[in-house]
Design brief:
With 498 residues, the protein is of the alpha+beta class. Helices cover 32% and strands 26% of the residues. The protein has an 8-stranded mixed β-sheet, sandwiched between helices. Strands 1-2-3-5-4 form a 5-stranded mixed barrel. Strand 2 (77-84) and strand 3 form a beta hairpin. The chain is elongated and about 85 Å long. The two termini are 37 Å apart.
């Protein structure tokens, strides 16, 4: 029978061809969906362990399992490449060795999973391989792989069918393996410094801790409106009040905002709080984390992001928001605090902001985005944020209009946000109330959280806190310029065709 996969047949024909192979397996008494299978090696471990094996030597019998990614017939022999998460190994099937089971190989399709036992050897062409003595089907693939395992070409399909993207691209698999290693290294770093990992509510009665629009849901049994959390901050600070002096959480955050190369409505955030520290301590902690990740995960202090070479070796540059605005916008914070001056600058920059619907604080933020951030390629701590943009940060002693706050930017993208945390309950109440007064033009204003204020009244020690966008950090360390390339299953618009 000819193979329609080599003739450009329709998808329906290809599926029918594979289903015929499925029936042939069943007719021969084979279980096409397999059972538990013991493997004592991975493809990579074979290449590592037997790298010095010559073509005159014989290796031991081993067992492997993986997906068929290539299938070649040569007379009375067949070569099949089997790929697992570690890599690929070539398997040599000889008719004289396998007898009846050899004939069934014609029913093996690219994409099938096989369990294989055989002896390690090196071919005359020098490729380390397995001389197969026994094989068994573990799972049948009823659909042909994309582009014969050279990967999906359509970017949207890559995101919609991530499982296909993963099975067809070792680079994509390695990105998500690296993401896992980054998360593990983050935990080991903070655990090694005496922090404890905690879990706080995902559904809350108030959406606080950040300036963002929440997703709203409803609890039927209690007949109450709930919000998916937009931050973990206020609950983690309650832990500090309660005597847990060093806490962190790596969790999913939900913000009802637009989708872009840097934004997904559901994302991963690290938030960390340390009693008796401050924002300077958080800078030191951040630099230490980057050094740890470069050493333990990357093996280098230099990465390339969006065509730019970035040096992640601490210490990082520190610059106040005022000095950066004067350098790149021609006006400082004090001038921009004036509404007329601020919105005149916004009009000059064509930001499309209106004083009737936008606060001065948010206008300043947009001006920074437009004028300053494009110049921040190397890691830079922007410090001394205005109080209007920092309702949860402590005021500076020498200028109460500014706060002990920094944001870390790399290649114009925010990676971290940290404060010397506000622990004065009266000041905190006043800031919440001030934000509530602007609710008509700022729908992202912090709500008045009475329970959090009650917690502060019990006393919170001086505290440093930081939030790190895990997805953006992974983007930086893997050189990916879209958040969708580091989130396994990003949110997408429904297809127009349903």
């Amino acid at each position: 029978m000819s193979n329609p996969e080599e003739e450009g047949s329709s998808l329906d024909d290809l599926i029918a061809f594979r289903r015929k192979h499925l029936e042939n397996f069943k007719a021969a008494g084979l279980k096409p969906w397999g059972q538990r299978y013991h493997r004592d090696r991975t493809a990579d471990s074979i290449h590592q362990e037997f790298a010095e094996l010559t073509s005159e030597q014989e290796g031991p019998h081993v067992s492997v399992a993986g997906r068929v990614t290539a299938h070649r017939h040569q007379g009375k022999a067949t070569f099949i490449d089997v790929t697992d998460v570690s890599g690929r190994i070539q398997c040599y099937f000889r008719q004289n060795d396998l007898e009846e089971s050899y004939a069934l190989l014609s029913n093996v399709d690219i994409g099938d999973f096989l369990g294989i036992k055989g002896k390690v050897f090196r071919t005359r062409r020098g490729e380390l391989s397995l001389h197969v003595t026994e094989w068994t089907p573990l799972s049948k693939s009823l659909r042909p792989p994309p582009e014969k395992f050279h990967g999906l070409k359509d970017q949207e399909t890559k995101y919609r069918q991530r499982y296909v993207d993963l099975l067809s691209s070792s680079e994509v698999r390695q990105t998500f393996i690296l993401r896992s290693k980054i998360l593990a290294a983050m935990r080991s770093y903070f655990d090694g410094l005496g922090f404890i990992e905690v879990e706080t509510p995902t559904m809350t009665s108030l959406a606080g801790g950040a300036s963002a629009r929440p997703f709203i849901t409803h609890h039927n049994a209690l007949d109450m409106q709930l919000y998916l959390r937009i931050a973990t901050e206020l609950y983690l600070k309650r832990c500090i009040v309660g005597g847990l002096e060093k806490v962190y959480e790596i969790g999913r955050i939900f913000r009802n905002e637009g989708i872009s190369t840097r934004h997904n409505p559901e994302f991963t955030m690290l938030e960390l709080y340390e009693a008796y520290s401050d924002y300077e301590g958080m800078m030191e902690l951040t630099e230490g984390l980057f050094a740890h990740l470069c050493d333990k995960v990357l093996g280098t202090e230099t990465v390339v992001f969006d065509g730019k070479e970035v040096n992640l070796r601490p210490p990082f540059r520190r610059a106040s928001m005022d000095s950066l605005l004067r350098e790149h916008a021609g006006l400082g914070l004090h001038e921009l605090r004036d509404s007329d001056t601020c919105f005149a600058k916004a009009r000059e920059l064509k930001l499309g902001l209106d004083a009737k619907t936008t606060t001065v604080a948010h206008a300043i933020d947009k001006i920074v985005d437009e004028t300053v951030l494009p110049h921040l390629v190397q890691p830079t701590f922007i410090t001394d944020y205005p109080i209007e943009l920092s309702p949860l940060a402590k005021r500076k002693d020498d200028d109460p209009n500014l706060t002990y706050r920094f944001e870390l930017f790399v290649c114009g993208s925010e990676i971290a946000n940290a404060f010397s945390e506000l622990n004065d309950p009266d000041d905190q109440r006043g800031r919440f109330e001030s934000q509530q007064a602007q609710k008509d033009i700022d729908e992202e204003a912090h709500p008045l959280d009475e329970d959090f204020l009650l917690a502060l009244e019990h006393g919170m020690p001086p505290t440093g806190g930081i939030g790190i966008g895990v997805d953006r950090l992974v983007m930086l360390l893997t050189g990916k310029t879209s958040i969708r390339d580091v989130v396994l299953f990003p949110l997408l618009r429904p297809r127009a065709d349903g």
